[in-house]
Amino acid sequence: MTSAAFLILLVLPLVSSQSYHWGACPDPKIQPNFNIEKYLGTWYEIEKLPASFERGKCIEANYNTRPDGTIQVLNSQFYKQKFRTVEGTAVIPDPREPARLKVSFSYFTPYAPYWVLTTDYSTVAVVYSCTDVLHLFHIDFAWILSRSRFVQPQTVQYAKQLLAGEGVDVFRMKPTDQLGCKD
């Protein structure tokens, strides 16, 4: 068995709840003139591509700047009758492309892409991430976020059309349950 085939067999069980596709990651357009200061604060997850680390309800993300210039990412969800949070760090590796952030939730994991494709800062944001595995296949992550727990259906449709137009398969996107959440 070739080493590439062996690697694929090892990785596939880990991505079974993910959205993966053959070939390298797409390179979507990002938000021009992105302003991280306007983006900070609370965003609620409206829909997403399945992700093994997000299985609960009431999912939200809070972004705040730290004194060292990095961005604190505090994600929370209600899962298995418990409110759970995880803290991560986001950085902007290239100030010329501030919408191409990188995020890590552990000292032991590499930074992953977190690309803001579009946002109006006050209503909706569309975020995309992709992990390329040896240019053989890639794992997509995509989120539709809002400043409120509920949005109009046309907002979701707009976000999905934007993602699809950038080569992201939105067929597996699932709504996030935001009912009965504490604010």
Automatic annotation (TrEMBL):
GO terms for cellular component: cytoplasm; extracellular region. This is Apolipoprotein D. Belongs to the calycin superfamily. Lipocalin family. PROSITE patterns: LIPOCALIN. InterPro entries: ApoD_vertbrte, ApolipopD, Calycin, Lipocalin_ApoD, Lipocalin_CS, Lipocln_cytosolic_FA-bd_dom. The keyword Disulfide bond applies. Pfam families: Lipocalin_2 (PF08212). Residues 1-17 form the signal peptide. Its main location: secreted. SUPFAM superfamilies: Lipocalins. It comes from the Eukaryota. Residues 35-176 form the Lipocalin/cytosolic fatty-acid binding domain. The lineage of its organism: Eukaryota, Metazoa, Chordata, Craniata, Vertebrata. One of its GO terms (biological process) is tissue regeneration. Keywords: Disulfide bond, Glycoprotein, Lipid-binding, Pyrrolidone carboxylic acid, Secreted, Signal, Transport. GO terms for molecular function: lipid binding. The keyword Secreted applies. It is found in: Secreted.
